[in-house]
Write a structure and sequence with these properties.
Largest sheet: 9 strands, mixed
Helix content: 40-55%
Structural class: alpha+beta
Strand content: 15-25%
Number of helices: 20
Shape: globular
Oligomer: single chain
Radius of gyration: 29 Å
């Protein structure tokens, strides 16, 4: 039975501590920092601490809480400020840098990607401290760099660059993602300008290296005993959170059915481990202090489980949260408490303030908060007398409660809603539990036993995946392209709070207000959907050196691209998120454009003619829009209404062409390193 603490604001001091500390982090993240401002903040914090101690000493309680929470706020500010770059690096010149590798390098063909923290900048025999973290890409065409490891000190020559913005509407903003992880700049390094200065000491990172060996061993066992590759991918993700091998198709199915959380180690996984160990070790309670020993053993095991899962932020979050829950359960026999939720969140933010901006952090804590708040209310509304039916009903309540508090934020980030999430999660509950348990037992060094377990896991995974595939194929299984803004997200959480308060305190007027706000929110979303569905025009997307544009006519979409397929990886990343606003991807038409020197004339509509110039041509063209590509010269006579220069042109050629267009008073748009272009209702401009 799920045991949850009753809500009492006096018993959750960490709620206010967390809120003030988190608010300080947010404020600091958006500030521009200097050494003077940082020093001033430290002095202010010291003065506040002195005032607070003085109030305690003289037993003055009137302003004590205000000073305390202001101090906590400033601690949050300084906690984040300490992680942010103060000096702007040289973005104009190529320089020589010394850095330490802070992340395990990942190879993708000829590219080696990692993250580094600068130690020094070598400038004219002087060493200038930098303290900057960079997203680093090394071109290693000859595969010479094979032994780069986390902790290595390296020296390289290159030019630090700003992170590129998202150039297309609704495209995933990778630069914002990196900034929310403490990375504000990037650098590209040819392997000839890169050198490993010193390897990590033998004893340094030894523990981490051993954990990495255990992970590789477990993955090799899964590959060996689970013969189907798709089953291996899903089983290793469910059991240990290893998602590096997961295909895009598998991720899409789990995402569309609202079960993507099962593929990441979370509180769900840790709670299952707790349940299994509690059942196995229950006889220990008969021994003197057996219950305490059992809980100590469980704590040790879940942290070991976290270690072999990689102790990535998602795993660390789940393990710390559940560890605090277990302490509360050991003392008070209450598994889930609001104070435990916010105390674990506060400790994690002290460890890494950037976690506050992590989507997984936000969703997991909202899910647990939803369970704590709404499961007791739902149980009061209805419970079964039958024990087994009541357990099933509890699972339904848990799923509904978690979905209630996470759906709004998920729609804001991903702009989709899995319609059959409740059915999918109910179906997946038992198989995912069995997959986790059987997968864990695969660790046992017994070949015959492993072969049997591997076969069972394979059949479980494949049958479950087939069911999820079927659910995903049902009509309206996932509503895509939901226009959910930040304002609507805030409004939705106000509604959720009002619903909770109205049920908790039985206030009808609060419930009526929440219903009115629900109608308002629904109307605003439907209005935005109608605007998108009625859009008519041309969108030219920035896909670097490739040409991609879409003709959109009130829900009818046709995509043209020099990429060979609408399913190309680059189009999925840059274009699909925007097109989902207008229609389903399966209904989009596609035409492959020539990418060679052949010019193409396209009569799209009666009033829309396009001409793509891939090679030199001096003839006259009367198209409405002219696409100039591959450093092609402009025609002698330019009759087009608009000329668009894409990323396949060099900057030198773009500047020359722009000069000609301006001299002839012709409209143009430079798409290279610029935002997507939109032509709508005879008006044109950036979207």
């Amino acid at each position: 039975m799920l045991e949850i603490q009753k809500i009492n604001l006096q018993q959750i001091p960490f709620l206010r501590i967390f809120l003030f500390y988190a608010f300080g982090i947010v404020i600091a993240f958006w500030m521009t920092w200097s050494e003077f401002l940082l020093l001033s903040s430290i002095v202010t914090l010291f003065l506040l601490l002195c005032i607070y101690i003085g109030l305690l000493f003289f037993k003055i309680y009137n302003y004590r809480d205000y000073i305390l929470f202001l101090t906590i706020f400033l601690l949050g500010v300084l906690g984040m400020a300490n992680q942010l770059p103060i000096d702007i690096p040289d973005l104009e010149n190529t320089r020589v840098y010394q850095a330490v590798v802070t992340e395990i390098p990942v190879r993708k063909g000829e590219i080696l990607q990692t993250r580094v923290e600068l130690i020094n900048t070598l400038e004219f025999r002087f060493l200038k401290s930098s303290n900057l973290r960079l997203q680093t890409t090394i071109w290693d065409k000859d595969l010479m760099i094979m032994n780069l490891e986390k902790g290595d000190v390296i020296v390289f020559k290159g030019r630090i660059q700003n992170l590129p913005s998202a150039y297309n509407p609704k495209q995933f903003d990778y630069s914002s993602y990196l900034k929310r992880n403490g990375i504000f700049y990037q650098i590209f390094i040819p392997s000839k300008d890169f050198k490993i200065l010193s390897k990590i000491p033998k004893d340094a990172y030894k523990f981490e290296a051993n954990i990495f060996k255990i992970q590789n061993f477990l993955q090799s066992k899964f590959k060996r005993f689970i013969s189907d590759y798709s089953a291996y991918q899903i089983a290793s993700a469910i059991t240990f959170g290893y998602k590096a091998d997961l295909s895009a198709e598998i991720l899409e199915v789990f995402s569309n059915t609202g079960t993507i959380h099962v593929l990441s180690v979370s509180g769900f996984h840790v709670s299952l481990m707790f349940g299994l160990l509690t059942w196995v070790l229950k006889p220990m309670d008969r021994l003197p202090k057996g219950r305490s020993l059992r809980f100590l053993f469980v704590q040790i095991f879940i942290w070991f489980y976290a270690l072999i899962c990689g102790l990535v932020p998602a795993v660390l979050r789940a393990t710390l949260m559940f560890s605090i829950f277990l302490i509360g359960y050991w003392k008070n026999k209450v598994l889930f408490s609001v104070n435990a939720v916010f105390s674990s969140a506060f400790l994690l933010l002290i460890y890494d303030p950037f976690m506050l901006f992590d989507i997984g952090f936000q969703l997991s804590y909202l899910a647990v908060l939803g369970i704590i708040l709404f499961v007791p209310l739902l149980k009061k509304l209805y419970q079964c007398e039958n024990k087994y039916l009541n357990n099933i009903l509890t699972i339904v309540y848990v799923s509904l409660s978690a979905q209630l508090t996470t759906t709004t934020l998920a729609m804001f980030y991903f702009h989709q809603f899995p319609t059959y999430f409740l059915i999918s999660n109910l179906i997946l509950t038992i198989p995912s539990t069995l997959i986790l348990y059987f997968g864990t037992f695969l660790v046992v060094p017994w070949t015959g036993f492993n072969e049997i377990l591997g076969d069972i896991v394979k059949k479980l995974v494949l049958s479950t995946y087939d069911i999820l595939n079927y659910i995903d194929s049902l009509p309206f299984s996932s509503i895509q392209g939901i226009p959910f803004s930040a304002a609507l997200t805030i409004l939705s959480y106000i509604i959720i709070l009002l619903i909770f308060l109205s049920i908790r305190f039985q206030k009808k007027w609060l419930f009526m207000i929440s219903l009115s706000l629900i109608m308002l929110t629904t109307s605003l979303v439907l209005h935005s959907r109608l605007i998108n569905k009625s859009f008519k025009g041309l969108k030219v997307y920035n896909t670097k050196k490739e040409l991609t544009f879409a003709i959109i006519d009130a829900g009818s979409v046709h995509l043209y691209s020099t990429y060979d397929s609408i399913s190309h990886k680059a189009l999925k990343f840059a274009v699909h998120p925007d097109l989902k606003r207008y229609t389903e991807l399966s209904k989009i038409g596609f035409t492959n454009l020539s990418g060679n020197n052949k010019n193409q004339s396209l009569a799209i509509q009666t009033d829309m003619s396009l001409y793509v110039m891939n090679g030199n041509n001096d003839s006259v063209h009367n198209s409405k829009i002219l696409f100039l590509r591959n450093n092609t010269d402009l025609p002698n006579e330019i009759n087009s209404t608009l000329t668009i220069l894409d990323g396949s042109n060099s900057w030198k050629h773009i500047h020359q062409s722009v000069s000609v267009l301006e001299s002839k008073n012709r409209a143009y748009y430079v798409l290279k390193d610029n935002f997507a272009y939109v032509w709508k209702n005879n008006n044109h401009g950036k979207n």
